[in-house]
Amino acid sequence: QVQLQESGPGLVKPSETLSLTCTVSGYSISSGYYWGWIRQPPGKGLEWIGSMYHSGSSHYNPSLRSRASISVDTSKNQLSLKLSSVTAADTALYYCARDSSSIFHYWGQGILVTVSS
Amino acid sequence: DIQMTQSPSSLSAAVGDRVTITCRASQYISSDLNWYQQKSGKAPNLLIYEASTLQTGVPSRFSGSASGTDFTLTISSLQPEDFATYYCQQSSNAPLTFGQGTKVEIE
Questions:
Q1: Beta-sheet pairing, B10-13 with B102-106
Q2: Contacts of B49 in chain A (CB under 8 A)
Q3: Where residue A108 falls among pLDDT bands split at 50, 70, 90?
Q4: What pLDDT digit, counting tens, does each position of A16-70 carry?
């Protein structure tokens, strides 16, 4: 059974870089599929951040492209998200998910990241 | 970007009611439309993909349909565990986009 688990700091200061890791179990990232990040501000809707294939092919939401960076570590079976120059508007629940033809079949439980000094 | 507009934003219904949620795409997306259910404090859960294909394990009371750029999620007989927020998502073009959500509450 595919499982995803996000981890990282729950509090980030404004202007700093948010860094999150998603550990995948039950499936080898190198076997295929894209792997993505989606976020949800408290009480609001869902926003796709971007997705990456194990080979490095990726696509991002243009609204975040200049600040977001996704990477995959197949040796650890992990994907990572870095979001630079964060502001309070980046406060959200961040989810990782398996992206199969842009359909999200499996999700992590999410991690709340608050941007505050 | 393709805009996804859901209606209504919220609804109240009773157990056993038939519930319909609509999602309209701002441009043609074929059948590249997916529905998710999100319960409070939980991650979204895929219900239906490609407009009408039921995800494995999802009860058959859930169904999806499409007509042009309009998509519908129907719950034939609402159950207590169905009270949640429902989101549509288009998988046709990047950036992938979601509807704003429809909250289904107990009447």
A1: parallel
A2: 103, 105
A3: very high
A4: 999 999 999 999 999 989 999 999 999 999 999 999 998 889 999 999 978 999 9
Q: Where are the alpha helices (DSSP H) in chain A?
A: none
- Spell out where chain A has E strands: 3-7, 11-12, 18-25, 34-40, 47-53, 58-60, 68-73, 78-83, 92-100, 103-107, 111-115
Structure tokens at B39: 């319960």
Q: What is the C-alpha to C-alpha distance for residues A56 and A69, in angstroms, rounded to an integer?
A: 11
Q: Does B99 touch chain A (CB under 8 A)?
A: yes
Q: Does A104 touch chain B (CB under 8 A)?
A: yes
**Touching check for B54 and chain A: CB below 8 Å?**
no
Q: Is residue B29 a contact partner of residue B90, using CB atoms and an 8 Å limit?
A: yes
CB contact under 8 A, B94 and A105: no
A47 touches chain B (CB under 8 A): yes
Q: Do B87 and A105 touch (CB under 8 A)?
A: no
pLDDT of residue A51: 97
- pLDDT tens, position by position, for chain B (107 residues)? 999 999 999 999 999 999 999 999 999 999 999 999 999 999 999 999 999 999 999 999 999 999 999 999 999 999 999 999 999 999 999 999 999 999 999 88
Positive or negative: CA dihedral A53, A55, A56, A57: negative
Residues of A in contact with B44 (CB under 8 A): 46, 95, 104, 107
The answer, for B97 touching chain A at a CB cutoff of 8 Å, is yes
